[in-house]
Amino acid sequence: MTERQLDAFVKRLTLKEKASLMSGRDFWQTKPLPDKGVWPLRLSDGPHGLRKEDLKNAKENGGHSVKATCFPTAAALACSWDEELAEQVGAAIAEECRSHGVGVLLGPGVNIKRSPLGGRNFEYFSEDPLAAGKMGAAMIRGIQKRGVGASLKHFAVNNQETLRMTISAEVDERALREIYLKPFEIAVKEGKPATVMCSYNRINGVYASQNKMLLTDILRREWGFEGLVMSDWGAVDDRAAGVAAGLDLEMPYSGGATDEDVVRAVQEGRLSEQALDAAVKNVLRLVAAYAHKPRTPYHQAAHRSLAEKACEKSAVLLKNDGILPLEKQSNLAVIGALAAGTGRYQGGGSSVVNAHAPMGFTGAMAQRGWAYINYAPGYRTEHTRPDAELEEQAVRYARTAQTVVYFMGLTDLYESEGFDRTHMRLPENQTHLLEKLAEANPNLVVVLAGGSPMEVPWLDQVRAVLYTVLGGEGLGEATYRLLFGEACPSGKLSETWPLRLEDNPSARYFPMGPRVVTYNESIYVGYRYYDKAGQAVRFPFGYGLSYTRFVYRDLHVDTGKNGELLVKVRLANVGDRAGDEIVQIYAGCPHSSVHRPVRVLVGFARVSLKPGEERQVEISVPRDRLAFYDPVQHRFVVEAGQYEICAGASSRDLPLRKAVLVSGEAVMPLYAQSADGPYGAFSDNRFSDAAFYGVHSRPPQNNALPHPGEYDRNTPLRQMNESKLARMLASAARVMTRKTLHFSPHAQVNQKVAHAMVGDLPFRNIQRNAWFLLNVKQAGRVLDLCNRPNKK
Ligand code: BGC
């Protein structure tokens, strides 16, 4: 359809038809207009594999969605630092979408990992905006080159699960631009996603779904986004305000009441029909581009080997005193329940893939022909209490083995959409057993799974640690290849591992609530904080070991045609194995007049070298990577002056450094943003409210728990606890949610998620989710009743 035909088409639609086209038909499709030739468009999760719900065939499928390939989660893939790989994975997922008639994949997610506790960190790439943005953009390119639309999510500032549907993330403008919006900016500009999904939360008081500054001023006007904006599922508060702000599609179907709101808003002159038409056109363009495409089969075996390869390239060797790679010895003890069955390969939530054939390490051993596997589970995964009998058996195996490989990790109970972690420790039964294994056998190797950093105080007691993150269904085979040296570990961390949770910059300000969470640490997220505070960390950002050795030499920095820096470095593989190195370039501005991180990542490249091979690696650094965001001028500024360009193997291993003069602007910051201001120097993570409100443009907000009389449509159910009626509603909602929620194969986990999610559900969503039981008026009356003081 040409634009002119589209205009003519929209003109012929009634107001009601238009409003209705802009909300879902059901949970997963847009509305068709059969007599007008508009097909429904199917959307499915994402992000690391296809989750097309198929409740009817749950038995046959062995899960609540169609079988699909589970690729490494974003947290894992990010550790490959391999944009080409991310593109290949995106393309493979899109091929699976094409075979199932799915037009838009709900992913990737590029939110910043503000705290290691974030429940959905495994679905996100990094604590660094460049790393997250680049990997996200690559994945989008891959998805879309197979004719499937991507949905970049969750726009924006979704950094916690606690109260995710109502919390206001109070974040200062500079942090918003430099940290939280930056990955979206990169992914939008370089990936050109067909759609963007807004987040649930508020940003500085305004819901993402009705945030004009985000959805229109920044996304469309500044970044040139031309696609469609959809809501996260149930994220709409005031739909008419949303349309006016730039929201095109409400998902999922919510009973039609919000369509009526839109019609009324136009009739009453509160919403322009022009805004409505623009949104309808975005929906129709998307449907025309991605709906009703021929279904094409995909090559399952090829996707499986890509999943294995991707896992292999993403795993990070955290420690090795030379014990790895292992020889194929018969006297090997494999301990830990996470070694067997499927292994720990993905997190819980809407991203759960019903994987074709997930296989843990013992499965891979059997497949490789190991006749006898000395395996003991050692602990249970459904709870965290040590089990004396299991431990005894494991220790017995360990005592007589030459080497012990112990599989540890966060279980389903720890990591899922819907709730955050409350601490950074591993399950107690696993660490309890570790002590005993270390006593029984000094040759202890740990294979660690989990989508986020963990506290590892036992590190000195083990000889090696291989971190497989949440590596997808190829986990077992990839682990096998890496442990036995058929492949060389090459992943590097995309997130800093602090020594302990309390060291993290957001530790005092996460997840806060009940109404707001303040981002007191401003731009000092991840290594930006640790480096400036001079804080020791367990493993730095960008860190990872290898079985071979790389040497960096001869750093040169030239200026390219567009003012970009051309950074050249010679890299040599001086070990005796082929391997990949992730070359990282950081830039600092030591004499900046504004407060800044010591240095930030400005470029990276994954390079493969044979033993003895040497190569010149060239990385182009566009000028804007040196910029800071000036909240007075509301724009990014490159300050003139001397910058230090560093090259090396991690954020804390930068052997090559060069000072370069960069032309730019003279800058005279306000005190709060200056190098001498409160953020200019610090040695711990106490960022006072005085400092924060010096850089934040909003005054402190009401952050008190509401009481009866103060409940409104946006009050989460858990905060209406004083009302007996609200408690009853919450129980009913929990029962319903438990029945319909399939966020994990384990009932216990679904129960935990349902409990957390219902507690965080704003009152308005009770009506939206149960529109067939309760109309808007009735819901209003129920809210009035909840607001009455309880009779004593
Ligand atoms: C999640 C989204 C997801 C959607 C559909 C929401 O709860 O936040 O990431 O795409 O559900 O399942």
From TrEMBL:
Record-linked InterPro entries: Cellulose_deg_GH3 (IPR050288), Fn3-like (IPR026891), GH (IPR017853), Glyco_hydro_3_AS (IPR019800), Glyco_hydro_3_C (IPR002772), Glyco_hydro_3_C_sf (IPR036881), Glyco_hydro_3_N (IPR001764), Glyco_hydro_3_N_sf (IPR036962)
The keyword Hydrolase appears for this protein: yes
A GO MF label: hydrolase activity
Spans traversing the lipid bilayer: none
PROSITE patterns: GLYCOSYL_HYDROL_F3
SUPFAM superfamilies cross-referenced by the UniProt entry: (Trans)glycosidases, Beta-D-glucan exohydrolase, C-terminal domain
This protein's UniProt keywords: Carbohydrate metabolism, Glycosidase, Hydrolase
Domain of life of the organism encoding this protein: Bacteria
Fibronectin type III-like domain: residues covered: 581-651
Family: Belongs to the glycosyl hydrolase 3 family.
Protein name (database record): Glycoside hydrolase family 3 C-terminal domain-containing protein
